[in-house]
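Running log. JK asked me to keep both predictions on one page so they can be read side by side. First protein, sequence followed by its tokens:
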Amino acid sequence: MYYIGSHLGSETDNYKGSGIDFTKEYKTHPNDFIRTILEYCFIAEYSELRLIEEKHLTNYNVACDNRFYNRTTKAYGGYHEKSVITRKNTLNELGI
């Protein structure tokens, strides 16, 4: 299985991802995952990072590929209200 996500920060800051399905699986099986960085970016605005993430989500056609934890080719992250509410509820259920 695969998960594509973007992160504005350091490689060593322990951020793993925030996708609902990914987070659920990572909590129970963290050793099953290997981190691969697809692209390093120097950006002026956070919105640029989302566009780069969407490029990868689209290139891998994640919405139609069951091998991905991603549910859509959109990079909503924390800025999409429905995504935020669903993520908060799921993380609360997981005790995260």
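And the second, directly underneath as requested:
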Amino acid sequence: MPAGCNDETNEGTTRQKMRPKIGVIGAGIMGTAHGKSIHFCRKVGLIDCDFVALAETDAGRRDGYAAKGGVAWTTDDAHALIASPEVNTVYICTPTHNHKELSAGR
């Protein structure tokens, strides 16, 4: 389990539980698939998280995704989502050539 996700002691340090606050970048095929997976895993109790944000440059796609997925905060700026203190877990669901630049944001 990643550091910060449980409360076990490791070499004298205590880890605290961290509730994932998920943001998805991209509302295309991969972003939609990941969003559906997040909702399914929440529904059946596999993860305890909040799906809080979506970044998508296409306004129609962004609004439709947010309405269906119940995402409260949307933006057209992926860097704003990455920088948001309300998001601590980011799914980058854009074309592969964007990943390196976006993953350098945090």
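Observation for JK regarding the second prediction: The chain has a mean pLDDT of 87.
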